[in-house]
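Please review this one:
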Amino acid sequence: MTPKEAVNFAKENNARMVDIKFLDFIGTWQHFTIPVSQFDEALFEDGLGFDGSSIRGWAPIHASDMIVIPDPTTAVMDPFMETPTLSLTCNVFDPITKEPYSRDPRYIAQKAEAYLKSTGIGDEIYFGPEPEFFIFDGIRYNSNTSESSFYHIESDEGIWNTGRDEGPNLGYKPKHKEGYFPTPPTDSQQDLRSEMSLIMEQVGIEVECQHHEVATAGQAEIDMKFDTLLNMADKLKWFKYIVKNVARRWNKTVTFMPKPVFNDNGTGMHVHQSIWKDGKPLFAGDKYGGMSEMAMHYIGGILKHTRALNAFTNPTTNSYKRLVPGFEAPINLAYSSRNRSASVRIPMYSASPKSKRIEVRFPDPSCNGYLAFAAMMMAGLDGIQNKIDPGAPLDKNIYGLAPEELAKIPSASGSLEEALEALRDDHDFLLKGDVFTKDVVDKWIEYKMENEVNPVKLRPTPHEFFMYYDC
Protein backbone atom coordinates (compact mmCIF):
# COMPACT_ATOMS: atom_id res chain seq x y z
CA MET A 1 0.00 0.00 0.00
CA THR A 2 1.34 3.44 -1.00
CA PRO A 3 0.77 6.66 1.00
CA LYS A 4 -2.00 7.62 -1.40
CA GLU A 5 -3.63 4.21 -1.08
CA ALA A 6 -3.40 4.42 2.73
CA VAL A 7 -5.20 7.79 2.70
CA ASN A 8 -7.89 6.39 0.39
CA PHE A 9 -8.16 3.26 2.58
CA ALA A 10 -8.95 5.49 5.56
CA LYS A 11 -11.68 7.27 3.58
CA GLU A 12 -13.18 4.02 2.27
CA ASN A 13 -13.46 2.70 5.81
CA ASN A 14 -14.90 5.96 7.19
CA ALA A 15 -12.00 6.34 9.61
CA ARG A 16 -12.40 9.28 11.95
CA MET A 17 -9.14 8.86 13.85
CA VAL A 18 -5.64 7.63 12.93
CA ASP A 19 -3.65 5.71 15.55
CA ILE A 20 0.12 6.12 15.37
CA LYS A 21 1.91 3.06 16.81
CA PHE A 22 5.65 2.68 17.37
CA LEU A 23 7.98 0.63 19.58
CA ASP A 24 9.99 1.50 22.62
CA PHE A 25 13.46 -0.01 22.98
CA ILE A 26 12.21 -2.96 25.02
CA GLY A 27 9.60 -3.77 22.37
CA THR A 28 6.29 -2.54 23.79
CA TRP A 29 3.90 -0.70 21.49
CA GLN A 30 3.41 2.99 22.24
CA HIS A 31 0.78 5.14 20.52
CA PHE A 32 -0.93 8.46 20.08
CA THR A 33 -3.90 9.36 17.93
CA ILE A 34 -4.70 12.16 15.49
CA PRO A 35 -8.01 13.14 13.82
CA VAL A 36 -8.35 11.95 10.26
CA SER A 37 -8.53 15.63 9.23
CA GLN A 38 -4.79 15.81 10.01
CA PHE A 39 -4.01 12.73 7.91
CA ASP A 40 -2.66 13.21 4.38
CA GLU A 41 0.15 11.98 2.14
CA ALA A 42 2.57 14.58 3.52
CA LEU A 43 2.54 12.75 6.84
CA PHE A 44 4.47 9.91 5.22
CA GLU A 45 7.23 12.37 4.34
CA ASP A 46 7.24 14.87 7.21
CA GLY A 47 6.25 12.59 10.09
CA LEU A 48 4.99 13.63 13.52
CA GLY A 49 7.09 14.87 16.43
CA PHE A 50 7.16 13.53 19.99
CA ASP A 51 9.33 13.53 23.13
CA GLY A 52 11.75 10.60 22.92
CA SER A 53 13.16 11.17 26.41
CA SER A 54 9.99 9.73 27.92
CA ILE A 55 10.33 6.42 26.06
CA ARG A 56 12.11 3.51 27.77
CA GLY A 57 15.75 3.12 26.76
CA TRP A 58 15.73 6.03 24.34
CA ALA A 59 17.23 9.47 23.88
CA PRO A 60 18.55 11.60 26.79
CA ILE A 61 16.64 14.73 27.73
CA HIS A 62 19.08 17.04 25.90
CA ALA A 63 18.40 15.29 22.56
CA SER A 64 14.83 14.19 23.01
CA ASP A 65 12.98 15.50 19.96
CA MET A 66 12.09 12.72 17.53
CA ILE A 67 9.65 12.03 14.73
CA VAL A 68 7.67 8.98 13.71
CA ILE A 69 7.02 8.29 10.03
CA PRO A 70 4.23 5.79 9.26
CA ASP A 71 4.84 2.76 7.06
CA PRO A 72 1.88 2.82 4.61
CA THR A 73 2.07 -0.95 4.09
CA THR A 74 0.94 -1.43 7.70
CA ALA A 75 -2.38 0.40 7.32
CA VAL A 76 -5.27 -1.53 8.85
CA MET A 77 -8.46 -0.67 10.72
CA ASP A 78 -8.03 -1.17 14.45
CA PRO A 79 -10.51 -3.89 15.44
CA PHE A 80 -11.07 -2.64 19.00
CA MET A 81 -11.77 1.09 18.83
CA GLU A 82 -15.40 2.19 19.08
CA THR A 83 -14.57 5.20 16.90
CA PRO A 84 -13.48 3.97 13.43
CA THR A 85 -9.71 4.19 13.65
CA LEU A 86 -6.98 3.56 11.11
CA SER A 87 -3.84 2.01 12.62
CA LEU A 88 -0.34 2.65 11.27
CA THR A 89 2.96 1.18 12.47
CA CYS A 90 5.81 3.68 12.31
CA ASN A 91 9.57 3.97 12.19
CA VAL A 92 11.42 6.48 14.34
CA PHE A 93 13.74 9.17 12.91
CA ASP A 94 16.00 11.96 14.06
CA PRO A 95 14.18 15.22 13.18
CA ILE A 96 17.39 17.06 12.26
CA THR A 97 19.33 14.50 10.22
CA LYS A 98 16.21 12.58 9.10
CA GLU A 99 18.26 9.43 9.73
CA PRO A 100 16.53 6.36 11.21
CA TYR A 101 17.00 6.09 14.97
CA SER A 102 19.51 3.34 15.77
CA ARG A 103 17.59 2.12 18.84
CA ASP A 104 14.31 1.69 16.98
CA PRO A 105 13.75 -2.11 17.00
CA ARG A 106 11.85 -1.99 13.73
CA TYR A 107 14.81 -0.33 12.01
CA ILE A 108 17.11 -3.08 13.31
CA ALA A 109 14.80 -5.71 11.78
CA GLN A 110 14.82 -3.84 8.46
CA LYS A 111 18.62 -3.71 8.50
CA ALA A 112 18.72 -7.45 9.21
CA GLU A 113 16.66 -8.21 6.11
CA ALA A 114 18.87 -5.92 4.01
CA TYR A 115 22.02 -7.58 5.37
CA LEU A 116 20.78 -11.06 4.40
CA LYS A 117 20.35 -9.91 0.81
CA SER A 118 23.75 -8.21 0.79
CA THR A 119 25.48 -11.48 1.73
CA GLY A 120 24.12 -13.27 -1.33
CA ILE A 121 23.24 -16.24 0.90
CA GLY A 122 19.51 -15.72 0.45
CA ASP A 123 16.96 -13.05 -0.29
CA GLU A 124 14.29 -13.96 2.28
CA ILE A 125 14.26 -15.48 5.73
CA TYR A 126 11.02 -16.79 7.14
CA PHE A 127 10.05 -16.96 10.79
CA GLY A 128 7.18 -18.91 12.31
CA PRO A 129 6.87 -18.24 16.06
CA GLU A 130 4.51 -20.23 18.28
CA PRO A 131 3.65 -17.87 21.15
CA GLU A 132 2.10 -19.44 24.22
CA PHE A 133 0.29 -17.47 26.91
CA PHE A 134 -1.91 -17.82 29.98
CA ILE A 135 -5.53 -16.59 30.20
CA PHE A 136 -6.39 -15.82 33.83
CA ASP A 137 -9.61 -14.60 35.44
CA GLY A 138 -7.72 -12.07 37.51
CA ILE A 139 -4.31 -11.19 38.87
CA ARG A 140 -3.28 -9.36 42.02
CA TYR A 141 0.31 -8.47 42.86
CA ASN A 142 2.26 -5.93 44.84
CA SER A 143 5.93 -5.29 45.50
CA ASN A 144 6.11 -2.58 48.14
CA THR A 145 9.42 -0.91 48.90
CA SER A 146 9.96 -2.37 52.35
CA GLU A 147 7.18 -4.22 54.07
CA SER A 148 5.46 -6.69 51.71
CA SER A 149 5.23 -8.42 48.37
CA PHE A 150 2.83 -11.00 46.94
CA TYR A 151 1.06 -12.28 43.83
CA HIS A 152 -2.25 -14.09 43.55
CA ILE A 153 -3.54 -15.74 40.38
CA GLU A 154 -7.29 -16.11 39.93
CA SER A 155 -8.21 -18.87 37.50
CA ASP A 156 -11.48 -20.77 37.17
CA GLU A 157 -9.46 -23.41 35.30
CA GLY A 158 -6.76 -23.66 37.97
CA ILE A 159 -6.53 -27.17 39.39
CA TRP A 160 -5.91 -25.64 42.82
CA ASN A 161 -9.54 -24.43 42.81
CA THR A 162 -11.21 -27.85 42.79
CA GLY A 163 -12.19 -27.27 46.43
CA ARG A 164 -13.39 -23.69 46.05
CA ASP A 165 -17.05 -22.86 46.56
CA GLU A 166 -18.11 -21.61 43.13
CA GLY A 167 -21.83 -21.94 43.74
CA PRO A 168 -21.56 -24.75 42.56
CA ASN A 169 -18.07 -25.90 41.59
CA LEU A 170 -18.49 -27.98 38.42
CA GLY A 171 -14.97 -29.39 38.30
CA TYR A 172 -13.53 -29.93 34.81
CA LYS A 173 -10.24 -28.21 35.64
CA PRO A 174 -7.10 -29.36 33.75
CA LYS A 175 -4.63 -31.07 36.06
CA HIS A 176 -0.98 -30.00 36.20
CA LYS A 177 0.68 -30.92 32.89
CA GLU A 178 -2.57 -32.43 31.54
CA GLY A 179 -3.98 -29.43 29.70
CA TYR A 180 -2.84 -30.45 26.20
CA PHE A 181 -5.79 -30.80 23.80
CA PRO A 182 -8.71 -31.60 26.17
CA THR A 183 -12.17 -30.98 24.74
CA PRO A 184 -14.75 -28.72 26.40
CA PRO A 185 -15.91 -28.50 29.15
CA THR A 186 -12.39 -29.10 30.52
CA ASP A 187 -11.16 -26.68 27.86
CA SER A 188 -13.35 -23.75 28.89
CA GLN A 189 -11.71 -21.18 26.58
CA GLN A 190 -12.42 -22.57 23.11
CA ASP A 191 -14.73 -19.74 22.03
CA LEU A 192 -12.41 -17.11 23.50
CA ARG A 193 -9.43 -18.38 21.49
CA SER A 194 -11.60 -18.65 18.37
CA GLU A 195 -12.57 -14.99 18.72
CA MET A 196 -8.89 -14.07 19.07
CA SER A 197 -8.08 -16.08 15.93
CA LEU A 198 -10.84 -14.54 13.84
CA ILE A 199 -9.84 -10.99 14.79
CA MET A 200 -6.23 -11.83 13.87
CA GLU A 201 -7.47 -12.75 10.42
CA GLN A 202 -9.19 -9.34 10.17
CA VAL A 203 -5.81 -7.60 10.40
CA GLY A 204 -4.09 -9.94 7.94
CA ILE A 205 -2.66 -12.65 10.20
CA GLU A 206 -3.18 -16.15 8.80
CA VAL A 207 -3.96 -18.48 11.72
CA GLU A 208 -3.08 -22.15 11.35
CA CYS A 209 -4.31 -23.58 14.65
CA GLN A 210 -5.48 -22.71 18.16
CA HIS A 211 -5.59 -24.99 21.19
CA HIS A 212 -5.24 -25.36 24.95
CA GLU A 213 -1.65 -25.87 26.07
CA VAL A 214 -0.12 -28.27 28.59
CA ALA A 215 -0.46 -26.32 31.84
CA THR A 216 -3.49 -25.88 34.04
CA ALA A 217 -5.06 -22.43 34.57
CA GLY A 218 -5.74 -21.49 30.96
CA GLN A 219 -2.46 -21.94 29.09
CA ALA A 220 -3.09 -21.40 25.37
CA GLU A 221 -1.41 -21.33 21.99
CA ILE A 222 -2.42 -19.80 18.66
CA ASP A 223 -0.15 -20.56 15.70
CA MET A 224 0.41 -18.10 12.86
CA LYS A 225 1.58 -19.00 9.37
CA PHE A 226 5.22 -18.10 8.79
CA ASP A 227 6.24 -14.80 7.19
CA THR A 228 9.36 -12.75 6.49
CA LEU A 229 11.32 -11.31 9.42
CA LEU A 230 9.90 -7.78 9.54
CA ASN A 231 6.36 -8.82 8.67
CA MET A 232 6.35 -11.50 11.35
CA ALA A 233 7.74 -9.13 13.97
CA ASP A 234 4.91 -6.72 13.10
CA LYS A 235 2.39 -9.55 13.32
CA LEU A 236 3.71 -10.61 16.70
CA LYS A 237 2.89 -7.14 18.02
CA TRP A 238 -0.62 -7.40 16.62
CA PHE A 239 -0.88 -10.92 18.08
CA LYS A 240 -0.20 -9.69 21.62
CA TYR A 241 -2.44 -6.64 21.17
CA ILE A 242 -5.37 -8.75 19.95
CA VAL A 243 -5.01 -11.50 22.54
CA LYS A 244 -4.92 -9.03 25.42
CA ASN A 245 -7.80 -6.90 24.15
CA VAL A 246 -10.09 -9.85 23.40
CA ALA A 247 -9.39 -11.26 26.85
CA ARG A 248 -10.34 -7.90 28.36
CA ARG A 249 -13.66 -8.01 26.47
CA TRP A 250 -14.33 -11.31 28.24
CA ASN A 251 -13.30 -9.81 31.58
CA LYS A 252 -10.16 -11.93 31.60
CA THR A 253 -6.46 -11.09 31.50
CA VAL A 254 -3.57 -12.49 29.48
CA THR A 255 0.10 -12.73 30.37
CA PHE A 256 3.08 -13.65 28.22
CA MET A 257 5.29 -14.12 31.30
CA PRO A 258 7.45 -17.20 30.69
CA LYS A 259 6.74 -18.75 34.11
CA PRO A 260 3.72 -17.33 35.96
CA VAL A 261 2.56 -20.68 37.45
CA PHE A 262 4.74 -22.68 39.83
CA ASN A 263 5.04 -26.44 39.37
CA ASP A 264 3.68 -26.54 35.82
CA ASN A 265 4.84 -25.91 32.27
CA GLY A 266 6.18 -22.50 31.42
CA THR A 267 5.33 -20.40 28.40
CA GLY A 268 7.68 -20.65 25.45
CA MET A 269 7.76 -19.40 21.89
CA HIS A 270 9.36 -21.92 19.58
CA VAL A 271 10.57 -20.14 16.44
CA HIS A 272 10.71 -21.91 13.07
CA GLN A 273 13.24 -20.48 10.60
CA SER A 274 14.30 -21.04 6.99
CA ILE A 275 16.19 -19.16 4.27
CA TRP A 276 15.00 -18.93 0.67
CA LYS A 277 16.53 -17.56 -2.54
CA ASP A 278 14.85 -16.90 -5.89
CA GLY A 279 11.71 -18.53 -4.53
CA LYS A 280 13.48 -21.76 -3.58
CA PRO A 281 14.03 -23.20 -0.08
CA LEU A 282 17.69 -23.57 0.88
CA PHE A 283 17.39 -25.68 4.02
CA ALA A 284 16.39 -28.95 2.30
CA GLY A 285 19.11 -31.46 1.50
CA ASP A 286 20.65 -34.86 2.17
CA LYS A 287 22.16 -34.22 5.59
CA TYR A 288 20.72 -35.18 8.98
CA GLY A 289 16.92 -34.88 9.10
CA GLY A 290 16.75 -34.04 5.39
CA MET A 291 18.55 -30.76 5.89
CA SER A 292 21.13 -29.05 3.68
CA GLU A 293 24.72 -28.29 4.63
CA MET A 294 23.71 -24.61 4.84
CA ALA A 295 20.99 -25.47 7.35
CA MET A 296 23.44 -27.47 9.46
CA HIS A 297 25.85 -24.54 9.53
CA TYR A 298 22.95 -22.22 10.44
CA ILE A 299 22.24 -24.53 13.39
CA GLY A 300 25.94 -24.41 14.27
CA GLY A 301 25.78 -20.62 14.46
CA ILE A 302 22.68 -20.68 16.66
CA LEU A 303 24.26 -23.16 19.07
CA LYS A 304 27.58 -21.29 19.20
CA HIS A 305 25.89 -18.01 20.13
CA THR A 306 22.92 -19.29 22.18
CA ARG A 307 24.12 -17.92 25.51
CA ALA A 308 24.42 -14.42 24.01
CA LEU A 309 21.15 -14.82 22.07
CA ASN A 310 19.38 -15.55 25.36
CA ALA A 311 19.77 -11.85 26.24
CA PHE A 312 17.30 -11.08 23.40
CA THR A 313 15.27 -14.31 23.11
CA ASN A 314 14.79 -14.74 26.89
CA PRO A 315 15.11 -11.16 28.11
CA THR A 316 13.44 -11.27 31.54
CA THR A 317 14.51 -12.56 34.93
CA ASN A 318 11.35 -14.68 34.86
CA SER A 319 12.54 -16.36 31.62
CA TYR A 320 15.00 -18.43 33.64
CA LYS A 321 12.29 -19.85 35.89
CA ARG A 322 11.36 -21.75 32.71
CA LEU A 323 14.88 -22.58 31.49
CA VAL A 324 15.83 -24.81 34.41
CA PRO A 325 17.96 -27.98 34.03
CA GLY A 326 16.18 -31.28 34.63
CA PHE A 327 12.64 -30.14 33.83
CA GLU A 328 12.37 -30.93 30.10
CA ALA A 329 13.34 -27.36 29.27
CA PRO A 330 15.08 -26.79 25.90
CA ILE A 331 18.38 -25.72 27.45
CA ASN A 332 20.74 -28.31 25.96
CA LEU A 333 22.95 -26.77 23.29
CA ALA A 334 22.39 -29.52 20.76
CA TYR A 335 20.03 -30.34 17.91
CA SER A 336 17.73 -33.25 17.23
CA SER A 337 14.96 -34.32 14.88
CA ARG A 338 12.61 -35.34 17.69
CA ASN A 339 14.15 -34.65 21.10
CA ARG A 340 12.33 -31.61 22.48
CA SER A 341 14.88 -31.03 25.24
CA ALA A 342 17.39 -29.94 22.58
CA SER A 343 17.72 -26.22 21.88
CA VAL A 344 17.18 -26.78 18.15
CA ARG A 345 14.77 -29.28 16.65
CA ILE A 346 14.32 -30.34 13.03
CA PRO A 347 10.58 -30.88 12.47
CA MET A 348 9.81 -34.15 10.65
CA TYR A 349 6.14 -33.61 9.84
CA SER A 350 6.67 -33.37 6.07
CA ALA A 351 9.27 -34.45 3.50
CA SER A 352 8.50 -31.49 1.23
CA PRO A 353 11.57 -29.27 0.62
CA LYS A 354 9.36 -26.23 1.26
CA SER A 355 8.67 -27.51 4.78
CA LYS A 356 12.30 -28.00 5.73
CA ARG A 357 13.16 -25.63 8.54
CA ILE A 358 14.73 -25.52 11.94
CA GLU A 359 12.85 -24.89 15.17
CA VAL A 360 14.69 -22.90 17.85
CA ARG A 361 13.01 -23.91 21.10
CA PHE A 362 14.51 -21.76 23.84
CA PRO A 363 12.91 -18.33 23.05
CA ASP A 364 9.88 -17.11 24.99
CA PRO A 365 7.17 -14.55 24.15
CA SER A 366 8.44 -11.91 26.58
CA CYS A 367 10.99 -11.05 23.89
CA ASN A 368 11.10 -8.10 21.52
CA GLY A 369 10.43 -9.99 18.27
CA TYR A 370 12.28 -7.50 16.09
CA LEU A 371 15.49 -7.91 18.08
CA ALA A 372 15.12 -11.63 18.80
CA PHE A 373 14.45 -12.58 15.17
CA ALA A 374 17.25 -10.35 13.89
CA ALA A 375 19.72 -11.72 16.46
CA MET A 376 18.91 -15.36 15.64
CA MET A 377 19.31 -14.67 11.93
CA MET A 378 22.67 -13.01 12.53
CA ALA A 379 23.86 -16.01 14.57
CA GLY A 380 22.70 -18.43 11.88
CA LEU A 381 24.37 -16.43 9.11
CA ASP A 382 27.59 -16.39 11.14
CA GLY A 383 27.36 -20.17 11.20
CA ILE A 384 26.92 -20.30 7.42
CA GLN A 385 29.71 -17.81 6.73
CA ASN A 386 32.16 -19.63 9.00
CA LYS A 387 30.92 -23.15 8.25
CA ILE A 388 30.34 -23.88 11.93
CA ASP A 389 29.83 -27.60 12.61
CA PRO A 390 26.89 -28.17 14.97
CA GLY A 391 28.36 -31.48 16.15
CA ALA A 392 26.45 -34.73 16.56
CA PRO A 393 22.68 -34.74 17.09
CA LEU A 394 21.20 -35.38 20.53
CA ASP A 395 18.89 -38.28 19.79
CA LYS A 396 19.06 -40.03 23.15
CA ASN A 397 16.93 -39.58 26.24
CA ILE A 398 19.06 -37.17 28.26
CA TYR A 399 17.10 -37.92 31.44
CA GLY A 400 18.50 -41.44 31.34
CA LEU A 401 22.10 -40.26 31.04
CA ALA A 402 24.61 -40.61 33.84
CA PRO A 403 25.51 -37.29 35.52
CA GLU A 404 29.00 -37.29 34.00
CA GLU A 405 27.53 -37.73 30.48
CA LEU A 406 24.93 -35.02 31.07
CA ALA A 407 27.64 -32.63 32.27
CA LYS A 408 29.32 -32.85 28.85
CA ILE A 409 26.31 -31.23 27.13
CA PRO A 410 26.64 -27.43 27.26
CA SER A 411 23.62 -25.42 28.40
CA ALA A 412 21.91 -22.14 27.63
CA SER A 413 22.36 -19.24 30.04
CA GLY A 414 21.02 -19.91 33.52
CA SER A 415 19.95 -16.37 34.38
CA LEU A 416 19.37 -13.04 32.70
CA GLU A 417 22.59 -11.77 34.23
CA GLU A 418 24.50 -14.70 32.70
CA ALA A 419 22.90 -13.98 29.32
CA LEU A 420 23.83 -10.29 29.47
CA GLU A 421 27.43 -11.17 30.40
CA ALA A 422 27.52 -13.60 27.47
CA LEU A 423 26.23 -10.85 25.18
CA ARG A 424 28.91 -8.49 26.49
CA ASP A 425 31.57 -11.07 25.54
CA ASP A 426 30.01 -12.33 22.31
CA HIS A 427 28.34 -9.74 20.08
CA ASP A 428 30.64 -9.18 17.10
CA PHE A 429 28.38 -11.39 14.96
CA LEU A 430 25.52 -8.93 15.61
CA LEU A 431 27.53 -5.91 14.41
CA LYS A 432 28.01 -7.19 10.86
CA GLY A 433 26.34 -4.95 8.30
CA ASP A 434 25.64 -2.46 11.09
CA VAL A 435 22.49 -4.46 11.88
CA PHE A 436 23.02 -4.03 15.62
CA THR A 437 25.26 -1.20 16.74
CA LYS A 438 27.60 -1.22 19.73
CA ASP A 439 25.36 1.45 21.27
CA VAL A 440 22.31 -0.82 20.99
CA VAL A 441 24.12 -3.76 22.59
CA ASP A 442 25.57 -1.64 25.39
CA LYS A 443 22.25 0.09 26.08
CA TRP A 444 20.38 -3.23 26.17
CA ILE A 445 22.82 -4.61 28.76
CA GLU A 446 22.75 -1.40 30.80
CA TYR A 447 18.95 -1.12 30.76
CA LYS A 448 18.34 -4.74 31.68
CA MET A 449 20.89 -4.73 34.50
CA GLU A 450 19.72 -1.46 36.04
CA ASN A 451 15.96 -1.90 35.59
CA GLU A 452 15.44 -5.64 35.92
CA VAL A 453 18.37 -7.72 37.19
CA ASN A 454 19.43 -5.50 40.10
CA PRO A 455 15.90 -4.66 41.35
CA VAL A 456 15.08 -8.39 41.53
CA LYS A 457 18.37 -9.12 43.27
CA LEU A 458 17.64 -6.54 45.95
CA ARG A 459 14.19 -7.79 46.94
CA PRO A 460 13.41 -10.73 49.23
CA THR A 461 10.74 -13.11 47.93
CA PRO A 462 7.91 -14.80 49.85
CA HIS A 463 9.58 -18.19 49.43
CA GLU A 464 12.76 -16.90 51.03
CA PHE A 465 10.69 -16.10 54.12
CA PHE A 466 9.32 -19.64 53.97
CA MET A 467 12.82 -21.11 53.82
CA TYR A 468 14.85 -18.80 56.02
CA TYR A 469 12.69 -16.86 58.46
CA ASP A 470 13.47 -19.25 61.33
CA CYS A 471 17.15 -19.61 60.54
Notes: The CA atoms of residues 192 and 247 lie 7 Å apart.
